[in-house]
Amino acid sequence: MINFLKYKFIYLAISLFVIFVGLFFILRFGLPISIDFVGGSNISYLLSKSPDKNQITQLINKSGLKYDRVDINKNVLDLKTESLSEKQENTLRKKIKAEIGGKVDLLLFESVGPSVGKEAINKTIIASILGVIAILIYIGIAFKGFNFAFSAILALFHDMLVLVSVYSVVSYYFHAEIDTLFITAALTTMSFSVHDTIVIFDKIREYIKEQGKQNIRESTNKALTETMVRSLNNSMTIVFMLLALILFGGSTIKFFIIALLIGTITGTYSSPFVAAPILVWLENRKKK
Fold first, then answer.
1. The domain containing residue 181 runs over which residues?
2. Which pTM was predicted?
3. What are phi and psi of 51, to 5 degrees?
4. Which of 36, 126, 152, 228 has the fewest CB atoms within 10 Å, i.e. is most exposed?
C-alpha cells in the first residue's frame, strides 16, 4: 500500500500554482471570447499579395467598423469584427482589394448577432448548473453521504479552474478562444472527472465497510493504490488518441482537442489527489 495522502500539501501546491498562473494570464491579457457568446463576425481572406497590417487596420478604421482582431499569416488575413451582414462583408472585401490590389478570395465568413450570443451564454450557465446539481444529488444518494458528494463537486470546480487557467495560457500564445466547442470540452471533462472519482469513492466505501470510518485514511490509501494503475491506463489511451488528433487532425478542431486533453489530464489528477484528500479531511472533521 502506498501512502498517497502523505503528499497532500504537494498536490495542493501544484493545483494552486497552475490556477494562479492562469489567473495572472486572464487578469493581465484577458480571455478571448468567441463570437458564439458575444456576437460579431469572423472573416478570413486569401490575398494574392502579402498585405501590411497597418494598412489593413487603417482601412478598417476609415470604414467605421469596430474590430477586435486583425491577424495576418502569410497571405491569409483573419478579422474579428462587429456583426456584419453579407452586404457589409462584400463592401469590405472590395475596399481591401482596391487598397492592396490583386485577388481577394473569401475563405470564411461567419456572423452571430448579440442576442444569439446572450442566449448561448444563458444556456451554457443553465446546463452547467443542472449538471452540477444532478451530480451532487446522484453521488449523495448513491454513497449515502454528503461528504462524498461535496468532495466530488469541489474536485469538479478544481478541474474547471485548471482547465480555464491552462487554456488561458494557450489562448495567449496561440490565439485560442472560448467558444461552444470549449464548453463541450468542459462538460466532457466534468463527466470524465466524476466518473473517475466515483470509481475511487466506490473502493473507499468498500474498505470503510470492512474497517469502519475510523480508518478512513488507511481505507483511502488502499483504494488509491488499487485503482491508480487502472485509472492511468484508462486515461493514457485517451491521451494518446487526443495527441494523435492534435498532430494530424484538422485545424478547426485543434483547440477543442487541446481543451479535451487538458481536461482529461486534470480529471485523472483530481480524482485521487484532490477529491480523495478532501473526503478524508471532511470525514475527519466530522469525527471531532
1. 4-35+116-287
2. 0.83
3. -85, 160
4. 126
